[in-house]
């Protein structure tokens, strides 16, 4: 524990205070080659940490999305199906994996097998037409 405590309380602050960071904007133009070389490691460290953080946040955000591929170029996927166009029934996808969106093509079966989920389509039907 002493090593971490000493690192946080002494080593890192001493290292940061020794960096040739100018007090004014114009001071950046007066830095020498040695100064710029001294600034490289912390710049690379901050850039690397920022990049890894960005990638981690991006991946976790994508992992929370239900729609992996359907019309990702638009803000919201909305479909209209006129009830008059449904002859007997319409089987609509709820798993967002159908290649025939918004209709179910059975892709939920593979998704359920992989994830252990139980997702299935919603079936919209005409009761009157179906019973006739
Ligand atoms: S393919 Fe998505 S619910 Fe069937």
Task: Give a description of the structure.
The chain has two domains: 2-63, no CATH class; 83-131, Ribosomal Protein L9, domain 1 (3-Layer(aba) Sandwich), CATH 3.40.5.90. The chain is 46% helix and 6% strand. The model has no long low-confidence stretch (mean pLDDT 91). With 132 residues, it is mostly helical. A two-stranded antiparallel sheet has the order 1-2. It is built from four helices and two strands, in the order ααβαβα. FE2/S2 (inorganic) cluster is lined by residues 93-95, 97-98, 104-108, 120-121.
Integer tally of domains:
2
Proportion of helical residues: 40-55%
Q: Any ligands, ions or cofactors bound here, and which?
A: FE2/S2 (inorganic) cluster
| SS class | mainly alpha
| Total helical elements | 4
Q: What would you call the shape?
A: elongated
Strand content bin: 5-15%
Q: Strand arrangement, largest sheet? A: 1-2
Alpha-carbon Rg, integer = 29 Å
Quickly describe the structure:
The protein has 132 residues and is mostly helical.
What characteristics describe this protein?
Ribosomal Protein L9, domain 1; single chain; mainly alpha; binds FE2/S2 (inorganic) cluster; about 130 residues; about 5% strand; 4 helices
Topology:
Layout: H1 2-18, H2 33-63, E1 89-92, H3 108-115, E2 122-125, H4 127-131
Antiparallel strand pairs: 1-2
This protein binds FE2/S2 (inorganic) cluster (FES).
Residues 93-95, 97-98, 104-108, 120-121 line the site of FE2/S2 (inorganic) cluster.
């Amino acid at each position: 524990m002493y090593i971490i405590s000493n690192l946080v309380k002494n080593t890192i602050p001493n290292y940061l205070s020794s960096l040739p960071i100018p007090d004014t904007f114009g001071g950046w133009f007066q830095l020498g080659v040695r100064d710029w070389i001294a600034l490289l490691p912390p710049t690379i460290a901050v850039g690397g940490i920022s990049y890894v953080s960005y990638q981690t946040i991006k991946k976790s955000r994508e992992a929370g999305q239900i729609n992996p591929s359907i019309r990702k170029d638009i803000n919201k996927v909305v479909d209209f199906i006129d009830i008059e166009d449904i002859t007997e029934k319409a089987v609509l996808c709820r798993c967002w994996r159908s290649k025939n969106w918004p209709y179910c093509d059975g892709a939920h079966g593979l998704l359920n097998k992989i994830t252990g989920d139980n997702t299935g389509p919603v079936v919209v039907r005409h009761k009157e037409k179906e019973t006739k």
